């Protein structure tokens, strides 16, 4: 598990290799990741959008931007936590992701960026 705190918001990420799948006649490696967002600040915040940079050892960088996370824009009061699970497909058994969440602080009405630390996506049988 990797963790990072930005402006009082703690992000923790754990990953699971889910198996291989054929898609469009090509082998893909499926990974799930669970992200926990903890509000350690004194203000209520809301997650507005996300930005992902997905690296596959056999392909170019893929950038994914979108509103919220899995269709939600969670509001976290001080001390609250939000956990969600999502996933991605790679064309190789090795890759990595990192990115950020754009959030708003309800006290200051200012937007800010919370860093999601880089996490590896590795199929366990492919490691030496």
Automatic annotation (TrEMBL):
Protein's GO biological process: error-free translesion synthesis
InterPro entries associated with the record: ApaG_domain (IPR007474), ApaG_sf (IPR036767)
Domain ApaG: 3-128
Domain of life: Bacteria
Xref: Pfam families: DUF525
Name used for this protein in its record: Co2+/Mg2+ efflux protein ApaG
Species for this entry: Flavobacterium stagni
